[in-house]
Amino acid sequence: MIPPLEGWPADDDSKPVLIGLTGPIGCGKSTVAGFLRDVGGLVIDADDLAREATAPNSPALPEIRERFGATVFSAEGKLDRAALAAIVFNDARALAELERIVHPRVRVLVDARLEAAVRERVPFVVIEAIKLVEGGLADRCDEVWIVVCQPTTQRARLSGRGATADDASRRLAIQGNDLAERLEEMLVERRVPVRRVSTDASLDETRELVEDALAEALDRQVIDRT
Asked: What pLDDT is stored for residue 3 in this prediction?
């Protein structure tokens, strides 16, 4: 189980342990993030920051309008995320161009939250992002967790969110069946420590697994930083 977090890290100059959290859709990233939040971690959700980076009057909107046109905006000038998603999720080049606009702004927002975490002496920080590697966030992590589950569990969870069978198949096809393997290969190439976290078990069992993994991660960073 995880050790007490009060007073850790002891060194005023120490930075919080930074854990990246990624993995295929429907595998339970948000559930794992919630467990980590419950035990004292700060969770930074990259999806939330992407919405902040594209909020009304944000500097990203003129670039998005120039690239994708007025059809992805409402009459009031707000970004129509559903219309934009319909374009980029069927066009890899368009998705890459959107990410080129949004990802750098997300990284700036992440940096601001990390600076606040240092000031507030948060013991560990979790960056939850499906594009953790591609968005340039994985390289700064002390380790990255890839959340995985069996395909049947994954499809059941997507269905539980209201996705039809066809929609679930489309989303999974976009990511590819080997996403976890590809992510791990990219992380190994970058020499970023990586661990897989399975969420196939019950919630209680998964919580215990997550807490044990966190204890190992914190212990390893204590050793590495001494």
From this structure: 38
Neighbours of 225 (CB within 10 A): 12
Q: What's the rounded Cα separation, in Å, for the pair 222 and 226? A: 6
Q: Is the pTM for the entire model greater than 0.90?
A: no
Q: Output the six-digit token pair for 52.
A: 């902040």
Question: Phi, psi at residue 108, to the nearest 5°?
Answer: -60, -45
Rounded Cα distance, 89 and 25, in Å: 14
DSSP annotation of 74 reads -
Q: pLDDT digit string (tens) for 173-214? A: 767 678 888 899 989 888 999 999 999 999 999 999 999 999
Q: What is the 3-state secondary structure (H, E, C) of 85-141?
A: HHHHCCCHHHHHHHHHHHHHHHHHHHHHHHHHHHHCCCCEEEEECCCCCCCCCHHHC
* Amino acid present at 78: K
What is the predicted pLDDT for the residue at 196? 94
Q: For residue 215, how many C-alpha atoms fall within 13 Å in the half-sphere facing its CB? A: 10
Packing angle, helices 29-38 and 203-224, rounded to 10 = 70
- H helices present in 39-89, as ranges: 46-53, 60-68, 81-88
Structure tokens belonging to residue 95: 């998705």
| pLDDT given at position 178 | 82
